[in-house]
Write a structure and sequence with these properties.
It comes from Planctopirus ephydatiae. This is Arylsulfatase. Its EC number is 3.1.6.1. With about 475 residues, this protein is of the alpha/beta class. It contains eleven helices and 17 strands. It has two domains: about 375 residues, Alkaline Phosphatase, subunit A (3-Layer(aba) Sandwich); about 60 residues, Arylsulfatase, C-terminal domain. The strands form four sheets. An eight-stranded mixed β-sheet has the order 5-4-6-1-9-11-2-12, sandwiched between helices. β7 and β8 form a beta hairpin. α6 crosses α7.
């Protein structure tokens, strides 16, 4: 009997060790999710005014997507798509969520956090959520073991300590959890420090899945004060300056003509520095090679606004910006790095937010959830060169049936291969563009290719009807 018990004990030890080894051998995941960062806000994507050396290096270390899209031109719908792998309209989220709204990420959805949690990962979430304001709708109740700095709104009340509106102590945009910080501490730095501190204190026997969802570079445009002068001097030295007040007209709105806002530039550089701090911490802990790093944004840069003044950035050569279904509103910088496993490469295939969920599951050898991430496809085989590229003629759809402060009027859009059609719902206007020849969407080809326009319009209507 004693021998049998000893035998069982030995088996348990072996099984337990095997399970521990399975967990420890799985890669970690660091998902860096930026707010309102435009495709061309990064040096490697063409910016010469903003300085982003650490993000540039991250982009060059792994897969850099040239045609990666957000699932929507504003934040909450894209965040819902990231969490679920589904088009936002399937979830009933087609606009940014107002404070105290009843709209929220449906409780029936299995989030990417839950999927990793159930796979044995320690899961953490910091920063902007914007998928419901009630406690049971927050990340702590949606698959994340540890959370920090998650407010009830869609932007911070302030980037400056105490990150709150002193006149409104219960304002939804007040950022909690950092009352112990110092008056000189900047919010983007504080969130990064909290992430680093948590990584230092983690259970090293378990892999981690961490989503750091920075509030930057969303409004209010409140830069680190010590960086602004640098860009004021840089702007003064530039030749051929054009006044951004003489912007590009976009319907009733105006788009910024060039990247020339020193305050915004300072916010971008600070963000870059904080990304570098995180990567340095992974290296210090000796886990950089065991960590998949994803860097992405929730929509295009805030370039276009109603009124007489443009947004703080410029997305040229892409048209318009956040809030629009033109390329400037939905094409975003996205990089996936995993040293030794994902070789440096530039990928020109269309992909979008919904793909992140199944891709990360696959890279981490976690079984897929095909009934959950129904609109995403795994890019893992493409990234690791273990399989062929996804279908180049893939169809992507955006549905935004609302007006927006950017001047956008209700629209829906579809991309299929090089062709993109935009249908403005109130006026029934159809615009057709060939993105390979015209990435700036300046030549409407709808009258020249009526059959193509009709085919795409019907497909767009079919997909929206089947997914709404």
């Amino acid at each position: 009997m004693m021998r049998f018990i000893a035998f069982l004990f030995a088996i348990c030890l072996i099984v337990g060790t095997s399970r521990a080894d399975d967990k420890s051998s799985k890669p970690n995941v660091l998902l860096i999710f930026i707010d309102d960062l435009g495709k061309t806000d990064i040096g490697v994507e063409g910016s010469s005014f903003y300085e982003t050396p650490r993000i540039d290096a991250l982009a060059k270390s792994g897969a850099r997507f040239t045609q990666f899209y957000s699932a929507h031109p504003v934040c909450s719908p894209t965040r819902a798509a990231l969490m679920t792998g589904k088009m936002p309209q399937r979830l009933g989220i087609t606009d940014w969520i107002r404070p105290e709204s009843d709209v929220a990420l449906p409780q029936s959805e299995i989030t990417i956090g839950q999927a990793f949690q159930e796979a044995g990962y320690h899961t953490a979430y910091l920063g902007k959520w914007h998928l419901g304001h009630k406690p049971q709708q927050h990340p702590a109740a949606r698959g994340f073991d540890w959370t920090k700095g998650v407010n009830h709104g869609g932007q911070p009340s302030s980037y400056y300590f105490p990150y709150k509106n002193p006149q409104k102590p219960d304002a939804p945009n007040n950022v909690p959890d950092f009352e112990d910080r110092q008056p000189e501490d900047y919010l983007t730095d504080v969130l990064t420090s909290a992430a680093i501190e948590h990584l230092q204190q983690r259970d090293r026997q378990r892999p981690f899945f961490m989503c750091l969802a920075h509030y930057a570079v969303h409004t209010p445009i409140q830069p680190p004060k010590n960086l602004v002068e640098k860009y004021q001097v840089k702007l003064a030295r530039q030749k051929n300056q054009e006044s951004s007040s003489e912007g590009i007209q976009e319907g009733s709105a105006i788009s910024r003509r060039q990247q020339d806002d020193p305050a915004y530039a300072a916010m971008v550089e600070n963000l870059d520095t904080q990304v570098g701090r995180l990567l340095d911490e992974l290296k210090t802990q000796g886990i950089l090679e065991q960590t998949i790093v994803v860097f992405t944004s929730d929509n295009g840069g805030l370039c276009t606004l109603n009124g007489k003044s443009p947004g703080p950035t410029c997305n040229l050569p892409l048209r318009a910006g956040k809030g629009w279904t033109y390329e400037g509103g939905v094409r975003i910088p996205t990089y996936i790095s995993w040293p030794g496993k994902i070789s440096p490469q530039v990928l020109d295939i269309p992909a979008y937010t919904c793909d992140i969920y199944p891709t990360l599951l696959s890279l981490c050898q976690i079984p897929p959830r095909p009934t959950q991430h129904v609109d995403g496809i795994t890019l893992a085989g493409l990234l690791t060169k273990s399989s062929s590229s996804p279908e180049s003629e893939r169809t992507l759809v955006w549905y935004y049936p609302h007006t927006h402060g950017s001047g956008h009027k209700p629209s829906a859009a579809i991309r299929q291969g090089p062709w993109k059609l935009i249908h403005f719902l109130e006026t029934d206007r159809i615009e057709l563009y060939h993105l390979e020849d015209d990435p700036g969407e300046s030549r409407n080809l709808a009258s020249k290719h009526p059959e193509r326009a009709l085919q795409l319009q019907k497909e767009l209507q079919r997909i929206i009807a089947s997914s709404s």
